[in-house]
Amino acid sequence: MDSRLRSSPLALAVLGLLVMGPLHPYGMQRLIKLWGKDQVVNVGQRASLYKTIKRLDEAGLIAVRQTERDQLYPERTVYELTEAGRRQMLEWLSDMLAVPRNEFPRFPAALSFVMLLGPEEAMTVLERRAAVLRENLATLDGDLKAYSASLPRVTLLDDEYQRAVTGAELDWISGVLGDLRTGALSWSEAELTDAAMSFLHSPEGISADIAPAG
């Protein structure tokens, strides 16, 4: 097995699906979407799925089972899980469940520069985000209610997590919006310039400036 192959949600999903039996790429993509796992696994670009499958195949984690030919569909390659793939899948799964990692999502990155907007504009864009979060929360609540009666809870833990995270983010944004409306949270370009200059001349800023690269 290629030790350089890194884990990813999509690679884990491919290996996890093949535990149930051999599948072709279209079947994998269809099942991920059918089960609603496309909310946590990015299969929007089929090219990414095929690249992941190719890497797993080259690493010996999956293998070609057969090639299907049908007049109604293009030729399809069916893959199966190897024993090495089963072991790697369980190792990745345990690691991804146990070890938190900073995945550098877009929203915190944007928040780190939100001061480049004025308070009023920041309030406007955060209100838009809050509206989307409320819609997502309603959808998640509806899905959980619809499926909890017929599916074991363990199959819905990802939905529960998404619901908890979405709800927590909405609560936090609502608090920030409240502070923006009352003026408890505010800033100006002059205040930010003064703060930046003060930091640059502080011991912390000087240490950061002279720290060696790398």
Helices and strands in order, then pairings?
Elements: H1 9-18, H2 25-34, H3 46-58, E1 62-70, E2 73-81, H4 83-98, H5 106-111, H6 119-147, H7 157-182, H8 189-200, H9 203-210
Antiparallel strand pairs: 1-2
Structure description:
This protein is mainly alpha-helical. The chain folds into two domains: 9-98, Winged helix-like DNA-binding domain superfamily/Winged helix DNA-binding domain (Arc Repressor Mutant, subunit A, Orthogonal Bundle), CATH 1.10.10.10; 106-210. Helix content is 61%, strand content 8%. It is built from nine helices and two strands. A hairpin with a 2-residue loop joins β1 (62-70) and β2. The longest helix has 29 residues, at 119-147. It is elongated, with a radius of gyration of 24 Å.
Q: Keywords, please?
A:
single chain; 214 residues; mainly alpha; Arc Repressor Mutant, subunit A; elongated
Give the topology string: H per helix, E per strand: HHHEEHHHHHH
Radius of gyration computed on alpha carbons: 24 Å
Task: Let me know the largest β-sheet.
Answer: 2 strands, antiparallel
Tally of separate domains: 2
Number of strands: 2
Spans of at least 5 consecutive residues with low confidence: none
Oligomerization: single chain
Distance between the termini: 31 Å
Strand order of the largest sheet: 1-2
Helix tally equals 9
Secondary-structure content class: mainly alpha
Helix content: 55-70%
